[in-house]
Each structure stands twice: as structure tokens, then as C-alpha cells.
What we know:
Order of helices and strands: HEEEEEEEE
Number of helices: 1
Largest sheet: 5 strands, mixed
Helix content: 10-25%
Number of domains: 2
Strand order of the largest sheet: 2-1-8-4-6
Structural class: alpha+beta
CATH class of the largest domain: Mainly Beta
Mean pLDDT: 88
Number of strands: 8
CATH topology of the largest domain: Immunoglobulin-like
Amino acid sequence: MARRGGERFKVVIVVMCVLGIAIGTGLLYISWSSPEIRSFEMYLSVADYVGVNADTSAIWFGTVPPSGTASRTVMLKNIDAWSRWVEMKAQGQLAGWVSVDANGFVLGPGEEKNVTVYVIVPKDAQHGNYTGRLDVVFRRVLFGPI
């Protein structure tokens, strides 16, 4: 009888160790792979003339007529000691009008990359002010040759 209780105790200890390792590994993975999100506000005015706004506090496209286009460049820099996977997504009123020239790429440690953000105003766009946000998601590269 005493032997049977000792075996159960060993099984319980082994199961607890396996669960502890699994939970610890999961928590480590989550903490290392949590994305960092940087957001840039975007502003656009639609009117029958062209206007420029050189302010760098946000992505200011200025004033653009219907069917017109504008672009701005943002510089992204990885300040970490590890590689980062970068993805960008536009939000808000400008989401369907905005695109980028590079998306889904890796930035190595200390690496910089200029990304051009384009807006194409639909021909039927109403005159007025439009806003949006460009979310830049940085994910830590956990595995791979990078």
C-alpha cells in the first residue's frame, strides 16, 4: 500500500513540473512576442485646389482635389537589439484611400527604412476634412535566420 501512495505522489510531482514548464514557456513566449504599436495620425483636406502642409507632427497630406493623390514619407527605425517584423494598417476615414510602398518586412537591430504613405482621393469625394491613423505594428522576430 505504501508503495502505491509513493507512486501517486511521484506522478503528481511530474504532472506539476510539466504544467509549470508549459505555463512558464507560454508566459515567456507571450512577453517576447507581444507587439509594440506606434500610431501616426493622418489628416487630409479635400477641395478644388492643392495645398501643402509641411508639419511633421503627424502625416499631413495637405489639400488635395477629388481624383488627386498625395504622399508623405515616414522613417521607421528599430531601436531594439533584435530584429522586428513590421506591418502597417490604416484606420479611420482614410483607411480605404491610403496605401504604403512597403509592408510586411523585417528591420534588423538599428536598421532604418523610409516608407512612403500614399493617399488617392476618390473622384466622388466630398469637399471637407478627413482623418485617420496609420498603425505600425512591430513584432519581435523569435525564430529564423534574421
